[in-house]
Amino acid sequence: MYQANIPTTFPAGFLWGGATAANQLEGAWNVDGKGLTTAEVVKKAKNRQEFSMNAVTKETLAAAIADKTDKLYPKRRGIDFYHRYKEDIALFAEMGFKAFRLSIAWARIFPNGDEEKPNEAGLAFYDKLFAECHKYGIEPVVTISHYEMPLGLTLKQNGWASRDTIDAYVRYAKVLFERYKGQVKYWMTFNEINASTWGFTGTGALDDELSDQEAMQLRYQALHHQFLASAQAVKIGHQIDPENQIGCMIARMQTYPKTCNPADVRAAQLQDQLNLFFTDIQVRGEYPNYMNRYFAENNIKLQMAENDQALLKEGCVDYLGFSYYMSTVTSAASQVEKASGNFALGEANPYLEASDWGWQIDPVGLRVTLNEYWDRYQVPLFIVENGLGALDKLEADGTIHDSYRIDYLRKHIIQMQEAIKDGVQLIGYTMWGPIDLISASTSEMSKRYGFIYVDQDDDGNGSLKRYKKDSFYWYKKVIASNGQDLSD
């Protein structure tokens, strides 16, 4: 009789850890030869329901360049990780991290993006950072471009709207692969690459003066250039070091049909396809037919060179990394009550609770996502972002009681284990973000995710002192038990 071998626990060597981005924690925005980035010209939001990260125009850009302070631009200051990385990595090690996902600030390596030679001071900083990780047995997981690029490429050629940016990125990636060979094994080419359909943060291109149709034409063309850059980076990375594992990264927008009405089911399917097409290209190496129809029906005409499609096929990724924060509901009706979070726009689900920022909490949706990805691609999966932004309170005795975060993470980890029992190959989990940092979407500090509290407010006031939250000790126990002890 056939007896199925069902895994009952997380695999040995599972990569437990946390995830960050250079532009949200490093600070030191004008230190050691670093250039200005696209992330550092985004103003902080006026309220937490406002996503400010794409609100960049020619007018606001000029004002940001003229402003030499960090008062209105919190990503310039971050949490001073640049000078405190040893302290912070020691805290990660105390929790037992197996992996630390971080990104490299492109403008630390090529300040304007088009230099012939890299900035040695920038390269040296990451040498020290990776050495500190390895000191504690922590595997660096490195994102090559995470919501930022040298502003010089925007000013010179409108960012990824130009095919010339491919060469700048590939030169940058090659330098990283060569410099950090043996120091970094896990790479991701772009963070949440689907962000480019949302505008400036992903494309580094100004499109505020274009019509909606013209803007989408620009964004999908910029995406095509990013797909090509990613494919070239995968090829070069494997040539330089065959041990490299190079993945893609997408913001998963899990959606459900509002009802069993076929119109709602089809509407949800289309929304799903518009999210999955990014991974279809990077994992399978070709544009899916449903997107060819979508482009034709929306008058989007991609400019492709003769060998572009062959290059995409040659540069497929080794694993699929993704972020998962929430799910939404899709209806065929045009007038719906929206639920927004991490740019997932869809109808609110009456069966789910929501965070202070309106992000609906759906742990079971993570299991659904894991199964759908595994069934579709059969490549290793890596959850590289998942977490709860909340308004934490620092008590007089220096404690932070964040039981709500523990509850959120516990429920998601349980669903991860269920997916592993379903047969999904999951290699790691780096929650977002293990230490409080500047919000990507709103540039707030008060939207806190971390196990570690950082004493800084939205205006940059505070000592920057680090405090351990209750969740710090809880996650330490989770890692030590390889996900088996989830008790309070």
**Ends apart, CA distance between termini:** 41 Å
Number of structural units classed as domains: 1
Residue-averaged pLDDT: 94
Give the overall form.
globular
List the uncertain runs: none
Describe the main β-sheet briefly.
8 strands, parallel, barrel
User: From the coordinates shown, what is the CATH architecture?
Assistant: Alpha-Beta Barrel
Indicate the CATH class: Alpha Beta
Rg, alpha carbons: 21 Å
Order of helices and strands: EHHHEHHEHHEHHEEHHHEEEEHEHEEEH
CATH topology: TIM Barrel
Secondary-structure-based class equals alpha/beta
Helix % is 25-40%
Number of helices: 15
Q: Please, what is the oligomeric state?
A: single chain
What topology, given as strand order, has the largest sheet? 1-2-3-4-5-7-11-12
CATH superfamily: Glycosidases
| Beta-strand content bin | 5-15%
Number of strands: 14
